[in-house]
Specification:
The protein is an alpha+beta fold. It contains two helices and three strands; from the N terminus they run H-E-E-E-H. Helix content is 20%, strand content 29%.
């Protein structure tokens, strides 16, 4: 569950900082679903990078706008 500011950055293709994470649910196979805290919708998927100390953007809904825009 990610805070609004973190979701906005994520949808622009950025990684998620740990400070933006509100709650973590145990992942399946190391991949986390990114859930918008405002409307509880899944907006993409991420994976924790212990060397970068961020949740790396694997896929987000904003990719369609970036590719088609």
């Amino acid at each position: 569950l990610v805070a609004e500011q973190g979701v906005k950055a994520f949808l622009y293709g950025n990684d998620i900082l740990p400070e933006s994470v509100i709650k973590i649910y145990p992942p399946s196979k190391g991949i986390y679903a990114v859930i918008d805290s405002i409307d509880n919708e899944i907006v993409g998927f991420t994976k924790w990078s212990s060397e970068k100390k961020v949740y790396v953007n694997l896929y987000d809904l904003g990719i369609f706008l970036r590719l088609l825009g």
